[in-house]
């Protein structure tokens, strides 16, 4: 038997309502904050992610699904959405539109990672970006949107972790202090961290290996090494969040795993905290456009994992709207009544009523069991007697009492029930 590839999943009909609910609320909140939808390709030139996401990130070094296509081009399945959106912004001259440009998309992403609860090799993501403005009020707006969206889903006991990782003016001084802190402990570090100490020191703080934690925990926090401009930006962001009533905990180790971040970085957590507990996160990336060959464009954004949101909805027993159920189950008993049943189903569908049309030959008892398991409100059965008299045996499954009615009257009764008692 074939199995789904490791790290992927089939979303079965009983779970689809969770995903549909999250995505519907996400689209509604994006519109509420005036974010427009954009759709970018599933795969891009591999160099886009190498330059944008960062050559020394785990995503680029270990996790990208890259291949040479039949045109001999080096392409990569999208591991994250931000570089694609910035590429589209630069390619289509979107700087000519009113700024900041507010965009969102719901996308599938792909990373070759170790599968575990809430982490998949193919996963779905909400991505929200605001491009063309460096005002910290915009950072606050993005974080507020994320927080309110999670609240609207029904998630409780949220917590926000916040940090600033400076800009090109103050980051070199902090990296010197970070190297000075780590170098005496080099022999205690994992292999990845010994390499990061040379090529990407900021990522030392993001290591999850237990033996590296004592060194990381005692490292100097970045927000104590900010230049005046970054310190002011960070203070104004915290004031904006306080105005929104959103509590933030400062986390000096929070750096995120992507090279393009500057200043603001944040992650949002649910009540149940674990290694993969973050619902999502993001930050400011004022240098990404220049890394991709464009002019300087300030920007900020976040991404939220749809699977992790669904996992936490289930953990918190949040009831979501159910999937669509057929309103009417139409069956026949005996082959002669089949055309009449099919015509009845066509008539209802033409008037916008959802119908499940039974097929095959079954007994009346089997038809009723099927209708009940399908969750239909009404069951309409045609047999020889109904065929002869031009009637239908209509049963309201909430009342369980059948009635034999003329076909037109049965249709009117179903329509009236669907429209609150009016035709």
Short recap of the structure:
By secondary structure, the chain is α+β, with helices and mostly antiparallel strands. The chain is built from 15 helices and 16 strands. The protein folds into two domains: about 15-170 and about 225-315, 2-Layer Sandwich (BirA Bifunctional Protein, domain 2), CATH 3.30.930; about 330-420, Anticodon-binding domain (Rossmann fold, 3-Layer(aba) Sandwich).
Describe the structure.
- By secondary structure, this protein is an alpha+beta fold.
- It has 2 domains: 16-170 and 226-315, BirA Bifunctional Protein, domain 2; 328-418, Anticodon-binding domain (Rossmann fold).
- Helices cover 37% and strands 20% of the residues.
- It has helices at residues 16-32, 46-52, 58-63, 82-91, 136-153, 171-182, 191-199, 213-217, 228-243, 288-291, 306-315, 338-350, 364-374, 384-389, 407-418, and strands spanning 36-37, 43-45, 66-68, 74-77, 101-110, 122-131, 159-164, 248-250, 262-269, 280-284, 299-305, 328-332, 355-357, 378-382, 391-396, 402-406.
- Strands 1-5-6-11-10-9-7-8 form an 8-stranded mixed sheet, sandwiched between helices. Strands 13-12-14-15-16 form a 5-stranded mixed sheet, with helices on both faces. Strands 2-4-3 form a 3-stranded antiparallel sheet.
- Strand 12, helix 12 (338-350) and strand 13 (355-357) form a beta-alpha-beta unit.
- Helix 1 crosses helix 11 and helix 5 runs parallel beside helix 9 (228-243).
List the defining traits of the structure above.
single chain, 8-stranded mixed sheet, alpha+beta, BirA Bifunctional Protein, domain 2, Rossmann fold, 423 residues, elongated, 5-stranded mixed sheet, 2 domains, 15 helices
């Amino acid at each position: 038997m074939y199995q789904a590839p490791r790290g992927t999943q089939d979303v079965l009909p009983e779970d689809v309502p969770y995903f549909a609910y999250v995505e519907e609320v996400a689209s509604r909140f994006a519109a509420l904050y005036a974010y427009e939808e954009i759709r970018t390709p599933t795969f891009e030139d591999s160099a886009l992610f190498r330059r944008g996401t960062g050559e020394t990130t785990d995503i680029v070094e270990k996790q990208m699904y890259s291949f040479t296509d039949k045109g001999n081009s080096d392409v990569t399945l999208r591991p994250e959405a931000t570089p694609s959106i910035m590429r589209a912004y630069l390619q289509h001259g979107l700087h000519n539109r009113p700024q900041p440009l507010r965009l969102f998309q719901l996308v599938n992403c792909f990373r070759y990672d170790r599968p575990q609860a809430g982490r998949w090799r193919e996963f779905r993501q909400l991505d929200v970006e605001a491009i063309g403005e460096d005002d910290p009020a915009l950072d606050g707006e993005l974080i507020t949107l994320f927080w309110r969206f999670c609240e609207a889903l029904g998630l409780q006991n949220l917590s926000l972790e916040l940090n600033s990782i400076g800009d090109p003016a103050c980051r070199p001084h902090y990296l010197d202090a970070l190297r000075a802190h780590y170098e005496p402990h080099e022999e205690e570090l994992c292999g990845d961290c010994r390499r990061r100490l040379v090529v990407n020191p900021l990522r030392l703080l993001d290591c999850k290996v237990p033996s590296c934690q004592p060194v990381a925990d005692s490292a100097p926090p970045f927000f104590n090494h900010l230049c005046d401009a970054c310190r002011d930006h960070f203070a104004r962001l915290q004031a904006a969040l306080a105005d929104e009533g959103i509590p933030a905990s400062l986390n000096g180790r929070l750096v995120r795993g992507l090279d393009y971040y500057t200043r603001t970085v944040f992650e949002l957590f649910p009540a149940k905290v674990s290694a993969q507990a973050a619902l999502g996160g993001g930050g400011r990336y004022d240098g990404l456009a220049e890394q991709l060959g464009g002019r300087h464009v300030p920007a900020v954004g976040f991404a939220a994992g749809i699977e992790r949101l669904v996992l936490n909805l289930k953990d918190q027993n949040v009831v979501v709207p159910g999937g669509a159920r057929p309103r009417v189950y139409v069956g026949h008993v005996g082959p002669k009544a089949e055309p009449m049943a099919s015509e009845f189903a066509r008539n209802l569908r033409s008037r916008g009523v959802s119908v499940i049309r039974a097929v095959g030959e079954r007994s009346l008892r089997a038809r009723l069991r099927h209708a009940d398991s399908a969750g239909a409100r009404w069951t309409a059965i045609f047999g020889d007697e109904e065929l002869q008299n031009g009637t239908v045996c209509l049963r309201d499954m909430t009342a369980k009492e059948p009635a034999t009615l003329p076909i037109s009257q049965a249709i009117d009764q179903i329509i009236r029930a669907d429209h609150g008692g009016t035709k």
